[in-house]
Amino acid sequence: MRRARDTPNGKQRVLDAAAERLVAQGYTATTLREIAADIGIKAGSIYHHFESKEDLFIEVFSRGISVMVDAFESVEGVELSCDNPIDRIEQHVRAHLGALFEHGSYTAAHVTAFFTAPVELRSAIVPLRDDYEHRWNALLADVLPELDTARLPIARLFLFGAMNTTIEWFDPRGDLGLDGLANLITVQFLEGVHALNLQRSTR
Fold first, then answer.
1. pLDDT at 82
2. Per-residue pLDDT averaged across 180-191, rounded?
């Protein structure tokens, strides 16, 4: 009989436990010993799958952002057929929320614990984050051509903040659901952007 560390899902179990620990207590407070204890193996067994704690968490964070990229791409073809900017943005907001709530701890770990990790570790993930942010920048620039390009990244950050903080308080099992939440976030975001442009044009 093979030991747990040698089973095909051994690496996956380590990753799952690491992601859950990250969500619960952040990078600094999480140890390999705790992760190993969570899945009933010795801490040294983790090194059969990863060279270091840093390598383990680079993969956890990478998976978290990859889920978001996949979600964005899943609706790209569909949203291009929409003429209404609300519908286009709302589909991507719903996809982002789906990545947060429907894909376990990986996306939550990326959102809540990324900035608790060392700079060297974060730098390995930055290209993936940049790619995702560039996709959103391009979407917003296309949907909101009236928005000043210098303000566009700030608008995206406002939208990201609205979406990402929902994992701390929103229950997707409630009456509103992720569809309703996506609509509320989208409408409030667009109303805020339009109000900002109106205020700027009257100065």
1. 66
2. 94
